[in-house]
Amino acid sequence: PSSISAAFQEYLQHLGLQDFPCGFGSWNKSRLNARRSPRAEPAGLEEAVPPGEETPEALLELLRDQHSPWALPPDCSPQDRLLREVATLAPELLHGSGVFQLIKSLRILDKGVEEVDEGLLQFQQLEELILSANYISRVTSAHLPRTLKVLELCYNAVDDLQDLCAQPPPELQHLGLGYNRLCGPSQEKHLTVDFWPNLVSLDLSFNSLTDLLELVSQLSTLQNLRILVLQGNPLALIPAYRGFIVDSLPRLSILDDIRIWPEERQQFHGLASQPELIRSGARVVVSVGEMKGLPNPEAFQQLEVGSEGPMITYSYCVTYEF
Question: Would I find Disulfide bond among this entry's keywords (predicted)?
Fold first, then answer.
């Protein structure tokens, strides 16, 4: 599926919410019909269940018993179990668009999703959206529910934040952009309190950000930021990288998954006021030990000076990807 909506429909089919022991069917029709009658007694007793039907307890047991052919795998999410059990006890709640109202966390990992489409707005209670390991390059913020608190886009192809920052969810607390294609200096301007007033955690690891001074300047406006991950960016190669950030962002608690203790903060005290210590370049020395399969250049060095004979020139380019 290329969109979130298509991936979600595939997910629902996988859960089988309309199939036994979930959904509507001959196994529960008396109980469900009784709910429509205000004078009906609540079902649940074994003797009150007509032949060919099952009690709610029996149906739940089929879902929960690991030896049952209808059981979910042990590593399934709590939400998977919740939806299956709701579809068993009260399938009318999942009829039509009702399923969208129950979901607060949506995890679509490695499903080939390329587009965050407007169908996502049907999830009016959604608080957590995990879209890791897909092919998303742009995120249209107008398609994100305003209730969102967690947005994880790790391992995608995001290379620009402009669309995401047009109308970002105002209550977002975590933004995960690790292992994407962000590169400075144009992206830093999107990482300020104007766009993310409630951001507590930000993951920008393993992108191509290079301007440490500008990035820290913008991040300093995020008053609630406590967790920051920048490792894997070129700017993390700067010798004074950690100390400069620790001193520049006094509210930060964790940097690159390492807690900032008072002793470390005291150690780097005053570094933020010395930006001249931040070098913007680094030198990398690479030595090539051996290369195989190349013509021997000595065979072409026997020509006399001024010779008109044909000359063959070979050139080679070696690239290194960091």
Answer: no
